[in-house]
Design brief:
Low-confidence stretches: 43-51
Strand order of the largest sheet: 1-6
Distance between the termini: 100 Å
Largest sheet: 2 strands, antiparallel
Radius of gyration: 27 Å
Shape: globular
Mean pLDDT: 82
Strand content: 5-15%
Helix content: 40-55%
Number of helices: 8
């Protein structure tokens, strides 16, 4: 009888251990699942926040929405130019608070008797979210972004001034110093003036204009700056390296 009782006790303890192990495994899986959900939610919120500028643009100029139906996926050396989109409203707020701020009268003149003198250029930046962010500093990454920016900025018939900002430096994890220089180079090569809006990037606002003035005053060419970048540039060090390279020029 004692042996039977011992056997039954061992069986019960074994079953209890098995159930406890399964419960522990299920709990660990649940924690992992919740962490993944939290991470996905954070990524979605970041994506929505980053998309607000484009969303606001499409909301105030709803004719832009139609481009999604007709424009194909761009190749690495392609851009999309939209001419004549009229602005109808004023946006207010940001992110989840984005809303209608009232009507807007677009005073852009009509050109060629058919459309407004308004232009929107779409150029897709490289996405470094799922890969090596340092690859944007390699020659292939630099050339890709230069070609893409030049494709958008050299559109024939477009205005000779370009308004741009921190292209691909939010959700796509681009380096704001490098991207600002690359856009400036592309605009210069295309023979167009650039109006750069750095938003909350204080160092771009503070450092890019004097750097550009120094390089222009020294008559440094687009090709020379491009070669300097292709020779090697470190993250968040683009301005400093260019200043050091041409300090004695």
């Amino acid at each position: 009888m004692a042996n039977v009782f011992g056997i039954l006790t061992a069986i019960v303890l074994a079953l209890a251990s098995f159930v406890a192990y399964k419960n522990k495994d299920a709990y660990a899986n649940e924690l992992t699942h919740r962490k993944n959900e939290d991470r996905n939610l954070a990524a979605t919120e970041a994506r929505l926040k980053t998309a607000q500028k484009s969303l606001a643009e499409f909301c105030v100029s709803p004719e832009l929405i139609a481009t999604r139906l007709f424009c194909p996926v761009m190749e690495k050396d392609e851009a999309i130019l939209v001419e004549g989109a009229e602005r109808y409203s004023e946006p207010v707020g940001y992110g989840w608070d984005l809303g209608f701020g009232g009507p807007f009268t677009d005073m852009s003149p009509v050109v060629h008797g058919r459309s407004l003198d308004s232009w929107v250029v779409a150029i897709d930046a490289s996405d470094f979210r799922g890969g090596n962010r340092n690859s944007q500093f390699e020659p292939a990454g630099i050339i890709r972004e230069l070609n893409k920016a030049w494709a958008g900025f050299s559109m024939p018939g477009a205005p000779d001034r370009i308004a741009t900002g921190n292209w691909g430096c939010g959700l796509f994890k681009g380096d704001v110093e490098l991207k600002s220089i690359l856009q400036w180079l592309a605009a210069s090569r295309a023979g167009r003036a650039i109006h750069y809006h750095p938003w909350n990037e204080e160092r771009v606002y503070r450092e890019l204009p004097p750097l550009a003035e120094r390089l222009c005053a020294s008559r440094i060419t687009v090709g020379e700056v491009t070669r300097a970048l292709l020779g090697g540039v470190a993250p968040r060090r683009c301005y400093t390296q260019l200043r050091d390279t041409y300090a004695a020029t």
